[in-house]
Amino acid sequence: MSPSATARQIAPPANGLPSHAGIYHYDQMDRDFLTERVEQFRRQVARRLSGDLTEDEFKPLRLMNGLYLQLHAYMLRIAVPYGVLTSRQVRQLAHIARTYDKGFGHFTTRQNLQLNWIKLVDVPAILDLLAEVDLHAIQTSGNCIRNVTSDQFAGAASDEVVDPRHYAEVLRQWSTLHPEFSFLPRKFKIAITGSANDRAAICIHDVGLIAKRDAEGRVGFEVYVGGGLGRTPFIAKKLRDFVPEDELIAYLEATLRVYNAYGRRDNIYKARIKILVHELGIEKFRDEVEAEFARMPRAEYRLDPAIVDGIKARFASQPYETLEPISGVLARARLEDQAFNRWVRTNVAAHRQPGYAIATITLKPAGGIPGDASADQMDAIAALADRYSFGEIRVTHEQNLVLAHVRQDDLPALWKALSDIGFGEANSGLITDIIACPGLDYCALANARSIPLAQRISERFADLDRQHDIGELKIKISGCINACGHHHVGHIGILGVDKKGVEAYQLTLGGSASEEGAIGDIMGPALSADEALDAIGAVVGVYLEQRQDGERFLDTLARIGHTPFKDKVYAAH
Amino acid sequence: MPLIESGKLIDDAWARLGDDAPLPASDVPVIVSLARLRKDRDALVGRNGGLGVFLASNQHPKDVADLLADVALVALDFPKFRDGRGFTVARELREYLGYRGTIRAVGHTIPDQYLFLVRCGVDQVEIPEGKDAATWAHALTEITTAYQVSVAGPLPVARLARHKRAEHAA
Which of A278, A312, A346 is the last residue of a domain? Predict the structure, then answer.
């Protein structure tokens, strides 16, 4: 039997979602719920406009529907459940961006899409359009369990042990309008991976989960707690080595209960679970969770394996062709075209299905705005997904997109098509693959602009030969201490600060969001944008000068320490 | 303050008794602080009127566990609606301590929390003066199903479990 004959197809519903895309396909109850939820928000907006709800009371309600009030307008943050979308959904997002925004959208580090120029009165209509394609903005903000994030290569990666999407979906359903945990001390972010190579940055989440298997092959979860960035960054600590699959919900309920009961509510900056874990110490915190877990009516919270199977059955699988593991077409194209070969080296990852590959579309063209895509570009990517990847598109926490199931034979044509829309840059994981928050251009919290600095760095290092020579180097930029741009875990982190009314940038070195998770160290006094740009040049210069065979930037930094970099950057000061 | 139960306005027979106020001679049911309950337990329990206890938002169910058998009502304070500790307290009272008496939410809550409160085991809610009770009643009908188990009984259904049924059907 060929693989295509066994691939699970979910009958395309009326809304025409591609039937082999690897999303959780909604059932009628999911749709009924979403319809009710949109109606509920429509009434909440009406009650706000009539004065029945004060702005103070309305605020958490709109936030739980992803609606922020920014510097210039409302911003709507649309949930992309664990980063997976269908081409139909992407087309609908493009349509919304065109109709209700300025014709583009912004993909974020939370695998979401933000629209930055929204009118309050349009929001119910936008939510209707989203619901048409099984999308929503539920719990993308507010002091609740936020939409769960995951590995953008889930279900495709060759190094995967457990497909985290199935459990991410369990968590999505469990956390949706949770009666007990919708008014937590502060927001609560859960990330899950199912691979030893952590692409979901679980170490910087309130709870990080690694799905794994025990010696008998049974699924369970390594649980981390208390990670987070912001003004008090922490790498998450291990809470438990193995929670069996059927206890996942019970264990998370126990963890959340301890947080809801004891988390600080007197100071917004000390309200995250990381502070509670830090103040109690991980041992004491663990004791509290285990005590809670021990006395829960566990049977009621049991995640029956039949439930997991039922959810798995609503994920379509892909009708892969039986192919040779190594594509001759790909090998020839790599030899013939150096530019294409370069793109394959950085933007293509191994797929577990022979003859297939995972392609990352970096939304980081030279001089571009990290994570931005126009409506036309979204439509074009949707068409490419239909043609090359079963109508499925992934969003990454590094603000890129992924086509997860591309035949290796198709990679040359895909790359050419991507290049035609400006997204063919061979820079995944390189110095211009920058994460940046919206910054002072949009955000009411920001101290400094992030996007223009990202664009200048991108221009400064645009030369691809140089980028590839430098190799893996992750720059992350936040416009303020809230750290939406993950600067603490950038190999080079950049934090925008307000220096007596002037925008300035503080640099950190040595952070990492991968399984080697680390918070970067501050280099020295904050710099102007021009100086910061030169400082990055100087840091790269020291690395290139000092590196030994095969060393990445982080390896050289670990070997020679921070001093040579600091000396070089601050020599002129 | 108006009081609602199951989405309907009801009369409030209970009186809040200050920590220094004398015990009423009549059988009017009273709600006292945890401190007062500990101090005057015998006298309070010896009355014919009902006895309730008020828990501040920083007090935990375990603080009152040994007294639950004596009280017919627990009033949970919501100092501001964003302070969600009461949801966990209500649930712990029901789930861990097996409390079967009345749980009442007092203080600042909003209609949009009503369904959550019910699902965590709260029976009665004091609503702010001047607010339309109909909005609260309607809030119970807005979302007719839920994804989680509830201490409030069979409705709304826990939707995760439907996958189990689907699996067996297939």
Answer: A312
* Residue from A33, A183, A267 whose CB has the most chain B CBs within 10 Å, to mutate: A183
In A247-364, the DSSP E strands lie at: 348-350, 356-361
Q: Which of 97-156 (B) contact A at CB < 8 A?
A: 110, 112-113, 115-117, 119-120, 131-132, 135, 142-150
CA gap A147, A140 in Å, rounded: 6
pTM of whole model > 0.90?
yes
Kindly list the distances between the CA atom of residue A63 and the CA atoms of A44, A55, A138, A398, in Å, as whole numbers in the listed order: 12, 12, 9, 23
Distances (CA, A) of A145 to A38, A130, A202: 19, 21, 15
pLDDT 10s digits, A323-363 = 999 999 999 999 999 999 999 999 999 999 999 999 999 99
The minimal CB distance from B83 to the residues A170, A257, A265 is found for A265
Q: What is the ipTM of this complex?
A: 0.92
pLDDT at A271: 96
Contacts of B161 in chain A (CB under 8 A): 304, 307
Q: How many residues does chain B have?
A: 170
Structural domain boundaries, residue B31? 3-143
User: Using CA atoms, how far apart are residues B58 and A193, in angstroms rounded to an integer?
Assistant: 36
Q: What is the pLDDT of residue B1?
A: 86
**Backbone angles phi and psi of A354, in degrees to 5:** -55, 135
Q: Find residue A115's DSSP bridge partners.
A: A76
Give chain A positions within 8 Å (CB) of B98.
none
Is A296 in the B-facing interface, judged by CB distances under 8 Å? Answer: yes
Q: Tell me which residue range forms the domain holding A6.
A: 1-136+320-427
Does residue B148 lie within any of the structural domains? no
State how far residue A176 is from chain B, nearest Cα, in angstroms.
7
Of A57, A143, A310, the CB nearest to B164: A310
What is the mean predicted confidence (pLDDT) over A427-431? 97
What does the pLDDT read at residue A515? 87
A151-163 confidence digits (pLDDT tens): 999 999 999 999 9
For residue A439, give the CATH number of its domain: 3.30.413.10
Asked if residue B139 belongs to a domain, the reply is: yes
Task: Specify the number of domains making up chain A.
Answer: 3
Chain A contact for B88, CB < 8 A? Answer: yes
At residue B160, the pLDDT reads 63
- Residue B147 and residue A314: Cβ atoms within 8 Å? no
